[in-house]
Amino acid sequence: MKTKGISLLVILVMGALLSQTLFPLTLTAQEMKPTTEGDEITVPDGTEFEVLTTEEISSKTASENDPVNFKVAEDVKINNRVVIAKDTLVKGIVANVEQRGHLGKGGKLGLRVESTTTVDGQKVKLRAAKGKADTGTVGSTIALSVLISPLFLFRRGNHAVIKPGTKIKVYTDEDKKVKVPEK
Question: In total, how many domains does the chain have?
Answer without folding.
Answer: 1
